[in-house]
Amino acid sequence: MTPQRPSPPDPGHLHNEATAHGDHAIAAGNIRNVFIRWALQHPSARWLPLLLACAALLVAGTTWPDGPASQYALWGALTAVSLGAAAGRVLVQRPADARIVAALSLVSVLATVGGYLAFRDVVTHGEVDVTGKVTAQGGQPLDATTHRSITLSLDAPALRESRNALRLTLAVDDHDPAGPTCVPDSYVTASLLSSGVPAQAQRVAPGGTADFSLGAQVSTVRIDVTLTTGRGCRMAVRPTRATLYDQ
């Protein structure tokens, strides 16, 4: 018995599939061409990158957090690029090469998106200055005889920005500036005593900085500050800078 050969595919079936696939590709190509033609030639499209860059700048201005200006350097650079490229796109009305318009639009949009992401990263994880929100309890001046201490506090309103660490800078000055200085013989011990956080104690020289891990759920911060100094010395201790940040 002669084996039967498989029947050839139906030519009509292949023709229909190819035609259907081709129709979709042609339609997609037409839509793409219309969009590109509009983006490169229509007057209204010239303003879109600039409007997008200005909208991102407005959002940043209305949600601006605290913290040092240096952490916004990347956002500032990308914003300048996005605004510059968008302005160039508006000014170039009839370019000799369409690729110039496309490049300006693409650079502006990408820089706007990158700048917004950089800004959101600072909002979420950047440093927050809470110096003015530190409250002090306890009498001053401190000395080595009475072993008095002060307690520095940060309550819930100051901790509304979620950060897991605190950087605290302390000044230790002579209570009587006219007398002999005791600063070289003085230092403080700063102890974190907040509930839910492991106890932490650090020795801090005058003008020095202590870093404390706060964890993720702390609602209040209490730091006990005890002075060590020479006999007969009386010192004033105060926070000069307090910064919340993510480790």
Explain this structure to me?
- The chain is α+β, with helices and mostly antiparallel strands.
- The chain has four helices and ten strands.
- The strands form two sheets. Strands 1, 3, 5, 8 and 10 form a five-stranded antiparallel β-sheet that branches.
- A hairpin with a 7-residue loop joins strand 6 and strand 7.
- The longest helix is centred in the N-terminal third of the chain and has 31 residues.
- The termini are far apart.
Sheet/helix structural class: alpha+beta
Radius of gyration: 33 Å
Average of pLDDT: 81
Helix content: 25-40%
- Beta content comes to 15-25%
Biggest sheet, open or closed, and with what strands and sense? 5 strands, antiparallel
Order of SSEs, N→C? Answer: HHHHEEEEEEEEEE
What is the number of beta strands? 10
Number of helices: 4
